[in-house]
Design brief:
InterPro entries: DUF1697. This is DUF1697 domain-containing protein. This protein has about 190 residues and is an alpha+beta fold. The protein has 2 domains: about 5-85 and about 175-185, SP0830-like domains (Alpha-Beta Plaits); about 90-170, Alpha-Beta Plaits (2-Layer Sandwich). Helix content is about 40%, strand content about 25%. It contains 6 helices and 8 strands. It has helices at about 25-35, 60-75, 85-90, 115-125, 150-160, 170-185; strands at about 5-10, 40, 50-55, 80-85, 105-110, 130-135, 140-145, 165-170. Helix 3 packs across helix 6 (about 170-185). The chain is globular and about 45 Å long.
Length: about 190
Amino acid sequence: MSDRGKVFVALFSGINVGGNRIVKMAELRSFFGELGFADVATYVQSGNAVFRSRKGDAASLTKQLEAAFEKKWGFHSRIMVRDLDWFERLVKENPYPDVVGEPTKLHAYVLERAPTADEIARLAEKCTGPENFEIKGDVLYLHAPDGLGKSVFANLIPRTLKVPGTARNWRTVLTLLEMAGQAGAG
């Protein structure tokens, strides 16, 4: 880690969805700055932030951010914090390279933990439509050929898998990786 700190990405869930729990990205950037983080950048309204921290790891930063966020905005948002190396691995290990040209049909679910074999088996039983999924560690890759909005299976993932997580389409994944890489090079 350089003396400037390490680059992380924070993925928020449950904010700015359907006009509820509104958090402006300018306010979110200020929030990160107030907590002492540097080189803060956000991407789209769903709550994605790239930032640099001089101390802490993904787990401790997650706890710090969730507590401070709830105190400031008055509601809980599950936050998944991952570092640049993790994002690079997520992209490199994509089991659906032939779909990257259709980024709205490929999604990565960032999971709080790696699911157990039993949890994965339960989910596989529900995957009866045109979708395909693969889990690698704490990432679920979903290829939804008809898009996420029309996927019945995608709606079943959280309550069947029962591992908290948040999904991002492939365009967002690649953009966040690029942003984190630029922050890391800067």
